[in-house]
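In the design runs reported in the main text, the only information available to the sequence generator was the tokenized backbone. The following block is the verbatim input for one such run; it is reproduced so that readers can re-run the procedure and compare outputs position by position.
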């Protein structure tokens, strides 16, 4: 564990055991500046008690579409304020475990959908699942769109940072979930739409070995055609200068290539 966190207890109607909720725990360094378009790096430790009672910002995306998707897909009864930032590599934990008894409950890690362009961990409330099924629920975030899946197909930008973020979150779970009453030896990953695609990618990837034990892919697989886009030069030219992506020379060298955005 990188440091102490302060969460909150929430009671679900009909259940005597409250669920401990921890929001916005960082599992990687903010992917800013030189860390943009690079694999995620482990989060820095902290010496204070981090307040984990407010929702983290969602990863950068179209705010109008992101708000619409969140309201359309959420299982929450209340509205939550949505913010968007490149500093977004956070996860939420919902645990019904009696931490004083050092419980070891099964863990379910939710990977949100949204076409790899939209969505966030906080759209999905893990409280009902945690309370009803007596499992520790973790909802994770990962870089989206060009920040998470742009690829030049060479050393300039290998891509799939979003899937690497998911792996980093799963490593964090292995290292730390026992502190929240979870069993790192019983981890199920599950996701819907692009989250289901991500689940199947993680199943195929040798990088995910020993990070989870079961997988549920809901309405999305790694070979879904709509999640693959060819012809990256136009979007790169549009966002390259403000994001400090490639030099003009590197851009010119890519014009004759047509690599997939999502090749893993």
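Verbatim output:
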């Amino acid at each position: 564990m990188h440091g102490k966190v302060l969460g909150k207890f929430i009671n679900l109607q009909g259940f005597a055991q409250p669920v401990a909720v921890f929001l916005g725990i960082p599992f990687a360094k903010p992917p800013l500046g030189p860390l943009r378009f690079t694999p995620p790096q482990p989060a820095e430790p902290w010496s204070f008690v981090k307040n984990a009672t407010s929702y983290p910002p969602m990863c950068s995306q179209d705010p109008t579409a992101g708000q619409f998707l969140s309201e359309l897909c959420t299982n929450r009864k209340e509205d939550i304020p949505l913010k968007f930032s490149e500093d977004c590599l956070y996860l939420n934990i919902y645990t019904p475990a009696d931490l004083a008894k050092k419980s070891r409950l099964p863990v379910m890690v939710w990977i949100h959908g949204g076409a790899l362009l939209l969505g966030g961990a906080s759209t999905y409330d893990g409280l009902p699942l945690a309370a009803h099924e007596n499992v520790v629920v973790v909802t994770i975030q990962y870089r989206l769109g060009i920040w998470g899946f742009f690829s030049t197909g060479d050393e300039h930008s290998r891509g799939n940072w979003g899937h690497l973020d998911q792996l980093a979150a799963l490593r964090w779970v292995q290292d730390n979930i026992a502190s929240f009453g979870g069993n790192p030896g019983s981890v199920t990953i599950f996701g819907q739409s692009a989250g289901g695609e991500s689940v199947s990618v993680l199943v195929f990837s040798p990088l995910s070995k020993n990070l989870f034990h079961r997988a549920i892919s809901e309405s999305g697989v790694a070979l879904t055609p709509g999640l693959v886009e060819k012809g990256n030069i136009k979007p790169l030219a549009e966002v390259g200068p403000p994001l400090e992506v490639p030099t003009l020379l590197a851009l010119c060298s890519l014009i004759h290539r047509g690599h997939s955005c999502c090749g893993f």
